[in-house]
Amino acid sequence: MLKVENVTKYYGDFLAVDDLSFEVEKGEIFGLLGVNGAGKTTTFRMIMGLLDLNEGKISLNGEKIDYSMTDKIGFLTEERSLLTKLTVKEQCEYYGKLKGMTQKEIEENAGFLLKKFGVPDYWDRKIKELSKGNQQKIQFITAIMHKPDLLILDEPFSGLDPLNVEIFKTEIKEMAANGCMIIFSSHRMEHVELFCKKIVIIQDGKSVLAGEISKIKEDFRKKNIFVKGEGIDKKELEKTEGVLSVSEIGDELEVKIQDIEHVDVVFNKIKDKKIFKFVVEQPSLNEIFVAKVGEKFGE
After folding, report:
1. Domain boundaries for CATH 3.30.70.980 within the chain
2. What average pLDDT does the segment 223-245 reach?
3. What stretch(es) of the chain map to CATH 3.40.50.300?
4. Which residues contact 86 (CB under 8 A, 6 or more apart)?
5. Which distant-in-sequence residues (6+ apart) come within 8 Å of 215 by Cβ?
6. Mean pLDDT value of segment 103-114
7. Cβ atoms of 87 and 125 closer than 8 Å
8. CATH assignment of 221-281?
9. Is 298 left (phi over 0), alpha (psi -120 to 50) or beta?
């Protein structure tokens, strides 16, 4: 288990991370979310032992993370961290040796992953000759070829087409199934919902929302109603008590309401019309994210 307990980090007088706590279980994919500058990268660096904490503690499987523990951690950064003049082989050897792997382990593990990711012939190709998507594949391979206990993924699908996104998804889920602890960070909330059961959203370094996604959605008061029918007056519906907005989506109306108590109010407003569909849905994680951190950014 990874445990982040009441962690605080200052850069001079600037408070980058403020009393942050969360846990990641073995085999769990955990979402760490926030806008740029929220404190995610600082948190990642503290987890990897690259930055000292001002307060709190971080442990992996009950042990403090120091240089002796870094071989158990993999990190895929949002930015490209490849040495573009090297060949794929040289890149894998460089990162593999940093993680304490033997030459045989590097060749076997990297070779297996190159084949799995559909680029078995890239061993002697220079990084700079590869497309952005294939560079991302190599970066991912170098992050996981030592079979880490903990894997940190920061925007892992950057530069990938839909087919390669599916390849990455499969590998990530397979690693979790084999017991790897995974921290997943992305601005694409649909990807977070696909992978993660639990999340923490941070703003200005402090947790503003944490817990299981299903419970967060259940507790979030604003709901969406999808209505399809004949003779519904959109403008009249917008004036209904508890209705926040009404949007046209294809041949349906999406009605956002303040809370679940106003469902009956909306239904009573249109019940005399010819209704083909009236479905109440929970808000998306993206809506909740914007509600929690969007006000600061003018959302």
Report:
1. 221-281
2. 93
3. 2-216
4. 94, 126, 127
5. none
6. 97
7. yes
8. 3.30.70.980
9. left
